[in-house]
Amino acid sequence: MSLTTTFVGLTLQSPVIVASGPASHDVNQIRLAQEQKAGAVVLKTACSDKYIHMRSWPRPRYKLLDWDKQIAGRSKAFSLYAYEQGYSGTLEDYWQFIKVCKKHASVPIIGSIFADEAHEWKEMAVKVEQSGADAIELDISSPHRPGSLGFEKTFVAAIKAVVSAVKFPVLVKLSPGPDVVQQSISAQECGAKAVTLCNRLRGVDVDIENQRPILHGYFGGIGGPWAKYYTFRHVAEAAQAVSIPISGTGGTMSGEDVIKYIMLGATTVQILSVIMINGWESIGRINGEIEQHMKQKGISSLDQIRGKALESMTYPDEIIRWSGESKKGPRNTWNEEKSE
Ligand SMILES: Cc1cc2nc3c(=O)[nH]c(=O)nc-3n(C[C@H](O)[C@H](O)[C@H](O)COP(=O)(O)O)c2cc1C
């Protein structure tokens, strides 16, 4: 029995990957992830020089909502609201960061970038490859990205430019929403080797005492354990539409969640909030829970269960419905008869 997973040509010791964010901003975090036997690490997203302001973060930049809804002392219900943007150093720092990670780490290192003009995406991706990263994730889906940058208008050209300029695998991270399937197909057609589904939503909450939006008064990224239900759906739909592998991300708290993602067609699962809230040990715990399930069910490889739940997915016209053959028919009158 083994958690070993092949993903975009890389051999991972676990399908559980540390997602891009504050847990992959520092080389010592890579060591901590590796100690917990993470499959790989996606580094914090570096923004192009045009978005230099995104390298400075407001303080505080996080707010934990609904934290009081703890279950058995472990927070299983919460929302993490955050206003964190790009990697906080310069691009030179980022290339150096990748080199140092690669010097020390044995787990694959995936760079992550954000820009707007296609030539900038390309130049940055080439630098990420030259710095030694094993793959790159194009973060076209940040909840903080400028609204003027549309998928068709900006990102298709960016994906094509990057794919044509590098040899290592290119992953594309998409936003949740009605376009996920179509964008996954486009990413595949542009030559992406995988899609990551999905980034966090852009949301807002209100402080009713002060009658203003919370934190800094602007929209922030929002997620939490509840988020898995819509990303499960996106993974399930995309898995039936594309042949490239899918990395699921959103709301994972347990090994059970990872197994669900895999049964819905994902190859890997990227986690972050659970690490931020419950610590690095979460990775080891989640790996252990997956192993326990495999042992109980006699599963030797995760390939055996990938997409299993999709096999029994029904479609609206196949769902068995009540025929509606009531003698009286539906009641359309108010209080006309006493209930029987
Ligand atoms: C504080 C914070 C910062 C994040 N920064 C990035 C980022 O720089 N690039 C990116 O692609 N995703 C970023 N994400 C999204 C995560 O990589 C991840 O996909 C998302 O949080 C869903 O996983 P989770 O529910 O396990 O946290 C960030 C998420 C959080 C909470």
Structural class: alpha/beta
CATH topology: TIM Barrel
Taking the sheet with the most strands, its summary is: 8 strands, parallel, barrel
Basic shape = globular
Strand percent estimate = 15-25%
Please give the radius of gyration in angstroms. Answer: 22 Å
Q: Give me the oligomer status.
A: single chain
Bound molecules: flavin mononucleotide
Assign the CATH superfamily: Aldolase class I
Q: How many β-strand runs? A: 17
Distance linking N and C termini? 58 Å
- Report the CATH architecture: Alpha-Beta Barrel
CATH C-level label: Alpha Beta
Helicity, as a percent range: 25-40%
| Number of DSSP helical runs | 10
| Physical arrangement of strands within the biggest beta sheet | 3-4-8-9-10-11-16-17
Poorly predicted segments:
none
Provide the residue-averaged pLDDT: 93
